[in-house]
């Protein structure tokens, strides 16, 4: 998948979490990968489940911070159930702790399995690939039986 697809997927996953303004701005600009995954080449190989795990880990990192602040007496008053807001540093740390759940060989195998369902497949060719299609069209999934 392309970086654009990666951005869209992670942005979608992130939408169900409370994030701070800095991360929200990165999300709006489409700069999540460049800001959060610098020097983490394996981040592009994370599955959707792995990305969900990143956000869960980031959330837990923030919860632990909040608990530590409460013990140290830094907790805001009258907040029985404070809102957990995940920040950039929490997500970066979570990416560092998360590894792809699929081995590269398994990922390639799955890509081969899904190849017949991609938009570039021509049913009459029998080869499963349309070598004349532009590269940008070769990664689109079919959306109908035509």
What does this protein look like?
- By secondary structure, this protein is an all-alpha fold.
- The chain folds into two domains: 3-101, Helicase, Ruva Protein, domain 3 (Orthogonal Bundle); 103-146, no CATH class.
- 49% of the residues lie in helices and 0% in strands.
- It is built from six helices and no strands.
- It has helices at 3-14, 21-29, 32-36, 48-71, 88-97, 104-114.
- The radius of gyration is 20 Å and the shape is elongated.
- It starts with a helix and ends in a 32-residue tail after the last helix.
Q: How is the main sheet built? A: none
Coarse structural class: mainly alpha
End-to-end C-alpha gap: 24 Å
CATH architecture of the largest domain: Orthogonal Bundle
On the 0-100 scale, what is the average pLDDT? 81
Radius of gyration based on Cα positions: 20 Å
Unreliable residue stretches: 128-133
Looking at the structure, the CATH topology of the largest domain is Helicase, Ruva Protein, domain 3
Query: Into how many domains do the coordinates divide?
Result: 2
Order of helices and strands: HHHHHH
Helix content: 40-55%
Taken as a percent bin, the fraction of beta residues is: under 5%
The count of strands amounts to 0
Count of helix runs: 6
What is the 3D form? elongated
CATH class of the largest domain: Mainly Alpha
Descriptive keywords:
146 residues; mainly alpha; 49% helix; 0% strand
Which secondary structure elements does this structure contain, and how are they paired or packed?
Elements: H1 3-14, H2 21-29, H3 32-36, H4 48-71, H5 88-97, H6 104-114
Helix pairs in contact: 1-4, 4-5
Biased composition (Polar residues): 136-146
Region (Disordered): 121-146
């Amino acid at each position: 998948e392309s970086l654009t697809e990666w951005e869209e997927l992670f942005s979608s996953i992130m939408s169900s979490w409370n994030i701070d303004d800095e991360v929200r701005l990165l999300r709006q600009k489409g700069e999540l990968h460049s800001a959060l995954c610098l020097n983490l080449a394996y981040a592009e190989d994370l599955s959707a489940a792995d990305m969900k795990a990143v956000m869960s880990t980031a959330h837990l990192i923030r919860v632990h911070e909040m608990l530590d602040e409460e013990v140290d007496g830094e907790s805001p008053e009258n907040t029985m159930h404070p809102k957990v807001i995940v920040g950039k540093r929490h997500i970066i740390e979570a990416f560092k702790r998360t590894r792809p759940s699929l081995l590269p060989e398994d990922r390639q195998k799955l890509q081969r399995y899904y190849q017949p369902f991609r938009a570039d497949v021509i049913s009459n060719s029998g080869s499963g690939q349309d070598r004349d299609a532009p590269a940008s069209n070769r990664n689109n999934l079919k959306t109908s039986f035509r």
